[in-house]
Amino acid sequence: xxxxxxxxxxxxxxxxxxxxxxxxxxxxxxxxxxxxxxxxxxxxxxxxxxxxxxxxxxxxxxxxxxxxxxxxxxxxxxxxxxxxxxxxxxxxxxxxxxxxxxxxxxxxxxxxxxxxxxxxxxxxxxxxxxxxxxxxxxxxxxxxxxxxxxxxxxxxxxxxxxxxxxxxxxxxxxxxxxxxxxxxxxxxxxxxxxxxxxxxxxxxxxxxxxxxxxxxxxxxxxxxxxxxxxxxxxxxxxxxxxxxxxxxxxxxxxxxxxxxxxxxx
Length: 265
Description:
The protein is 69% helix and 0% strand. The protein is mainly α.
């Protein structure tokens, strides 16, 4: 039987990300690894040029948190660090996942991240990145929420929430945005790409994916960058979730690049 190996482009990309690493799966499952590596590390990468390599890897790490892939995350975190993702950025990806993927899921990834960083001789804790205090988080969070989502939608969420649900809106402003989006270490446009990746990978969050397609547009990201992110995620989150996220992109930013028109009664 002829040995099955990934093509030259996939092999070169794999070696760049995982220098000197020989996958045990290449021995036990050579056919799968041949076509998976050709797909994920060659064919797919031809369609991710609208985001740089570091950003692509950061969004892939974010998606792996959402799907609960701890083992794959460890491997890809090593690759990300090897090509220039900083320890601070790595930690910020994990922190950013808490309000979206939930702390119960993120807990294992936080420990995995700490393990990988410690193994590389990086002393923890890292320098703090918080820019708010308990006294300012609500005001600053509401400001960045409106920057990302828009004044009118945020005001409408508060106005339309029943009295006994107002605290949830305040949680969104003070915690989701005030505690997380205001942090240093990763800029807001990149954080929005991470959130988009996390929500697409979660599945069952179609309304939120659509909302954050619009949010990405508000902070300067484009249809091209969102499609590049989804192309890079596809090998790791599968076709159903990718196609659902594509539907959200098409609904908000049609192929001509213009925001979708809203139908008003």
